Every structure is written in structure tokens, then in C-alpha cells.
Amino acid sequence: MDTNHARLVPCHTERVVGGTTVVEVRGEIDIFTATPLMARLDHLTAGVHPDLVLDLRPVTFIDCSGLRVLCRTRNRVLARQGRVRLVGDSHRFLRILSAACLAGVFEIHPDLPAVLFGAVRQDEASAAAG
């Protein structure tokens, strides 16, 4: 029996860039790590109009529990009139989303700078107009 309890907590970092919360998730999103990750994402999406970017490039494995976390987070964000974007460039991850009929459900970008540049540009345009 595996007694490596460090695996039970997903490894991630969070930062805010131009009003967008960026969460970089590393390692595996599976039955062991999904619940604590979901709790953290629930906290981050509890407010009005959450703007969330999930950088999944460092994720090495995702199972149906991980897909459930992504779907739940998306639904919470949309219910609060927010926006969620995924960053992922792995063909394996994109195939998993496609096989689960989720490829067209998420806004997916290949890299983080393009996502953040777009978010900051929209903020600047809003500030200039307001």
C-alpha cells in the first residue's frame, strides 16, 4: 500500500495578473488530488465575475475525477458571469477532452502569455473607455 501522503494534495501555485487569477496545476489530477483542488478552486470562484486561468501544461495525468473538477469549476464561473480559460499544449490532454466530448466546452489556449496579454488588453480598453 502506498503511504506517500504528499500525493494527496495537488501541487499548484496561484497569482493574480491584471485582475485574472492564474492557477498553475502540476502533477496529477486524479481521485486523490481532485477533492482538495476542487475545494481551492471553489474558493477562488466564489465571488462575482471570477476571471480564472488554469495552466494545465505541467499536469502529467488527469482522470475522470480531474475532468469533473474542470467541469464543476467552469459551471461555477459561468453561473457567476465569469470567465475560465485552460492553458494546455499537450496532445494527450486535448485528446482526453475530445474523447469526453469536452473539447468545444472549454476555452483552450496553447500558452499563458497569450491568455494574459488578452486579459490585460481588455482591462486597459475598459479603463480607457470608462
- Radius of gyration from the CA trace? 15 Å
What is the name of the CATH class? Alpha Beta
Q: Report the count of strand segments.
A: 6
Please report the distance between the alpha carbons of the first and last residues. Answer: 59 Å
Task: Determine the CATH superfamily.
Answer: STAS domain
Helix tally equals 4
Counted up, domains total: 1
Low-pLDDT sequence parts: 121-130
Cα shape:
globular
Largest sheet: 6 strands, mixed
CATH architectural grouping:
2-Layer Sandwich
Helix content: 40-55%
What is the residue-averaged pLDDT? 86
Helix/strand-derived class?
alpha/beta
Order of helices and strands: EEHEEHEHEH
What is the fold-level CATH name, i.e. the topology?
Transcription Regulator spoIIAA
Classify the beta-strand content into a percent band: 25-35%
Organism: Streptomyces spinosisporus
Pfam families: STAS
InterPro entries: Anti-sigma_ant, STAS_dom, STAS_dom_sf
Family: Belongs to the anti-sigma-factor antagonist family.
